[in-house]
Amino acid sequence: MKDPAFLFYSKDFYEGTRTMLPKERACYIDLLIYQHQNGRIPIDDYERLSMYCSGIDEATLKATLKAKFKQEDDGWYNLKLKKTIDDRSEFAKKQSINGKIGQFWKKSKSILSKTDYNKLRELLENQSNKDIFNKIKEIEINKNTLEAMLKAMLEAKLKHLVNVNANVNVNKEEKEYENNNYFYSGEDKYHLDVIHDSKTLYEIIKNSESWRKTYSKIRDVSETKVARSQLDFYNDISLKKKTHRTLREIIEHMTNYCNLKHKT
Fold first, then answer.
1. Most CB contacts within 10 A, which of 58, 81, 145, 148?
2. How far apart are CA 231 and CA 206, in angstroms?
3. Confidence at residue 175, expressed as pLDDT on a 0 to 100 scale
4. Neighbouring C-alpha atoms within 13 Å toward the C-beta of 113
5. 181 by DSSP, 3-state: which?
6. What would the pLDDT profile of 94-130 be if each residue is shown by its tens digit?
7. Pairing of strands 70-72, 182-185
């Protein structure tokens, strides 16, 4: 719906039109209204504009346009009015989004369990209302869509967790290790050819406290159960003598293994 009004700063208008003749001031007001209603003032259509600015001759019309408006490719604009309209439109959109997000949280709280609701709040806490709105604007808010959204965000966070834990951090001084088939996880160095060794694999799993804490929080499973699943993973891999070429492989494999153990 078109905005029916725009802000009129009386002091600014008075100060800016003190040297204008009454007919120029009247023409100015008419042109401001025209711009607000139509978006722009057409170029070189003085006959039509003269009809809109009733009783104003063409010379006054041209003089007012040149004094108070800027000509661009698609028409004349009063820049201050344009900014006022744009700001008001942006504010109205923000208020509308805020209202819809408020309704989203209210409805979500009434549909989801307390645990799932708190988990959804936590997953979205660092996102702006605009980002949240873009996620929900095309879906109907019900139990199925909310649970699907929650599941998708949990899976995305787990995927991010894999990437973070498997990130290779090699500085300039350590570059030689990378060239010699080494990679880093924090301060620990592992050679790519010995990751299948059970002792090395055990040390990697043992030192994955950050992964374990985050996984436990996301999946709503106790750290004790996650640690037990990690031990089962270690035993299973050791028994099968599975070889992993990178730390990323280990974490992805461990994450998938634990997902099967702790289905939600």
1. 81
2. 9
3. 42
4. 5
5. coil
6. 999 999 999 999 999 999 999 889 989 988 988 899 9
7. unpaired
Encoding tokens for residue 69? Answer: 């408006």
Q: Name the packing angle between helices 79-111 and 114-124 (round to 10°).
A: 150
One-letter amino acid of 106: K
| 77 contacts 40 by C-beta, under 8 angstroms | yes
Q: Given CA atoms 131, 114, 262, 211 in this order, what sign does their dihedral have?
A: positive
* CB 234, CB 244: distance < 8 Å: no
> Distance (Å, rounded) from C-alpha 209 to C-alpha 227?
9
Contact 190, 177 (CB under 8 A): no
DSSP string, 139-164: S--SHHHHHHHHHHHHHHHHHHHHHH
Q: For residue 64, which of 81, 49, 84 has the smallest C-alpha distance?
A: 49
**Contact between 89 and 6 (Cβ < 8 Å):** no
Instruction: Give the Cα separation of 165 and 215 in Å (integer).
Output: 12
pLDDT at residue 78 greater than cutoff 50: yes
Do the beta carbons of residue 71 and residue 43 sit within 8 Å? Answer: yes
Give the closest residue to 96 by CA, choosing from 3, 218, 17, 21.
3
AA identity, residue 261: K
> Looking at this protein, which amino acid is placed at residue 182?
Y
Overall residue count recorded for the chain in this entry: 264
Other C-beta atoms closer than 10 Å to the C-beta of 46 total 16
- Map out the domains of the chain as residue ranges: 10-77, 91-154, 165-261
Measured CA to CA, the distance from residue 239 to residue 198 in angstroms comes to 10
Q: What is the pLDDT of residue 162?
A: 58
Residue 257 has pLDDT above 50, yes or no: yes
Kindly report, residue by residue over 163-213, the tens digit of the pLDDT: 555 444 333 333 433 443 333 334 344 443 444 456 677 777 777 777 788
